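Case study 2.
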Amino acid sequence: MNLGTEQEKANATAEEILRHIYGDDFQGCTVSLESIAKIVLEAIQWKDAQDKELFELHEKVVEAVDLLSTPPAEHSAEQAGALLSLLGQRLDGIHTITQKFLQTIATIKSQREDEMSS
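Prediction:
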């Protein structure tokens, strides 16, 4: 999201907040629209940064799973045991990566729920 769009959204949100509190004429309002918009903009930017980090994490997980799931070079029948071992190691790696990712997602969800409830 570019800064202009973020600023426009922050301004519109700040205006809506003040309108709900003070009515359409802002009678009695002692704070500026800009001061509220600044707070809203910081929240938008913080959320965008979190989303970007989560997206990058997801991208790394997909790359790792893709690498681990790439078929090995052709093996002869005599090497079946080695191939079975390699495939087992790769599946273990995929399982470990996905479990860590799921734990990270659960932690993020919990943090967001805590933030929403406070």
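DSSP finds three helices and no strands in the chain.
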